[in-house]
Amino acid sequence: MQNKGKYYITTAIAYTSGKPHIGNSYEIVLADAIARYKRRDGFDVHFQTGSDEHGQKIETRAIEAGCSSPKEFVDQVSDTIKGLWNLMDTSYDRFIRTTDDDHVKQVQKIFKKFYDQGDIYKGSYKGMYCTECEAFYTESQLKDGKCPECGGPVHPAEEEAYFFKMSKYADRLIEYINTHPEFIQPASRKNEMMNNFLLPGLQDLCVSRTSFKWGIPVDFDKKHVVYVWLDALTNYITGIGYDADGNSSEEYKKWWPADLHLIGKDIIRFHTIYWPIFLMALGEPLPKQVFGHPWLLQGGEKMSKSKGNVIYADDLVSLFGVDPVRYFVLHEMPFDNDGVITWELLVERFNSDLANTLGNLVNRTIAMSNKYLGGVVADKNVTEAVDADLKAVVTGCYAKVEAKMDELRVADALTEIFALFKRCNKYIDETEPWVLGKDESKKDRLSTVLYNLVEAISIGAALLDPFMPETAQKIKEQLNTPDRDFDTLGTFGVCKNDTKVTENPEMLFARKDLKDVLEKAAEITKKQKEEFERTQAEAAKNLAKAGLAPATPVKAQESDEKAEAIDIPAKEEITFDQFGAMQFQVGEIIKCEAVEKSKKLLCSQVKIGSQVKQIVSGIRKYYSPEEMVGKKVMVLVNLKPAKLAGVMSEGMLLCAEDAEGNLALMTPEKDMPSGAEIC
């Protein structure tokens, strides 16, 4: 295998406020698939992940959990995170913790270096503070008086703090982003950072705190601790041996700059504005690329314990297995739009793609080889025209997968691999080995057909390995074929003649019954709800014991609570025919973006049956574009198209409005198919 050089990939380090859900686990699986692929493709890879362990929220969580110290709490949560990452079969090279001694020492040095060279100054910060997000906001940044990120409560706060002079490096960063179009991906994230933050002008950034103690101390001003983002972001260099005094390790010189920072889209501002500026101040090169991946939504909503819609990786693994969960999260996440996870979709993908397309293919090939050829396959060179097309598809697959992976389109790469397996299934239907097996004169043709299948599947298994490593290994073992380097995948016929497949094939994937899975999922949800309520009650007790008032939990309105009644002026009566002229249908929002020229409008692509309509709605104050994707909504379909803020709208989303003018989308009470008539 050709050595293609080094490749350094990182994930965001997981915050230790609690157990990561499947949306968080998606990131580590995505990074692992990329890292494994790069290794197989000839790169020398270093893959780093870890846990972010400081901050006021952690200090509070430790008290709520009844721990003797924040360190005891983060030790427990970090072990949980690491356990999940190991469960998901991820091949990281270092799991860094921000409480690691080498990291703490370097953060203190970096802070002092910034201060000495005039990038940091002491001042005071006053604003509205969100403890959950550990961030200050101005009044104008709040949404309905609440945190614009989590929607939780904020409170006035003022404290002495050190600030980093962001504006000093802003023009340099703008120039860098403009001359390096590959730096921020997808491109939509770049536009957001430029238009919303950089071009309007950067404010100086608070980089220390005095209102709590759980953080890395500023060694020359002990009442300050380093603010969580300066602490956390520097892990990407401290974890590979960076030294602020100029004595960085050979490992650092080898791996930096990072080839890819893989992060969630919600923290892209920190990684594409603050982090590059910190690096500029240190005189270090910038990472080659930052990719802000979309979210994995549960039934179209962001996962939240308070909503009771959280799904965890270990629960999914208990029902489906590790590789099927890896396959699902990788396959169902679009490049730049949020993905959706539901129990129904999990079962559908498991049965159709894994049990049928792949599992059945491998099982049939082995079974027919044993039945007709005693398990021994060989290329007897008895070919027909159909063979050439199979070979072309199979040997061309690597190039297609490579092109997708170069663009980080991992879901599309998996689709190409499964197109190979589907072509193999079609080849079985075309050649009918069961018919050839009845004719002794066709035995050499039958052997050639089954050899072609074994060879094709072994190439597919090699490509599948980064995404589903356990499954790929099982396939190779059952076919008794060697591991394939990627640079051999364009050659058909590498498997040795007289290869003997296993006599006792193991079923790779047994089909799942939806009813059974839903019953088990309901039990999991019930246990999670009980555990959430128990821990909330314990947290309140522990906070009270510590002399602290518990935060008021944000909870959904109970079904038996009645909203205040509202009377509105009556409109002129209409006839039944007038009502019948209006066409109402259920739509599914598949994409949503803010309208650039408006502060109120969102532009949604709404799937209605087999059609997609573009609908502009004045609901930006109440819903983010990310929240909209995946929602089932009620649509007035036959409204005459009109332009709003220069954007064409082809219908209307129905909303309810309360006495204060707050809007809520009207959604079907039960899950209805896209296009269903509302009557």
Automatic annotation (TrEMBL):
Enzyme Commission no: 6.1.1.10
GO cellular component assignments: cytoplasm
Subcellular location: Cytoplasm
InterPro entries recorded: Anticodon_Met (IPR041872), Met-tRNA-synth_bsu_C (IPR004495), Met-tRNA_synth (IPR014758), Met-tRNA_synth_2 (IPR023457), Methionyl/Leucyl_tRNA_Synth (IPR015413), MetRS_core (IPR033911), NA-bd_OB-fold (IPR012340), Rossmann-like_a/b/a_fold (IPR014729)
One GO biological process term: methionyl-tRNA aminoacylation
Span(s) of short sequence motif 'KMSKS' region: 302-306
Protein task: Is required not only for elongation of protein synthesis but also for the initiation of all mRNA translation through initiator tRNA(fMet) aminoacylation.
The protein's name in its UniProt record: Methionine--tRNA ligase
Gene encoding the protein: metG
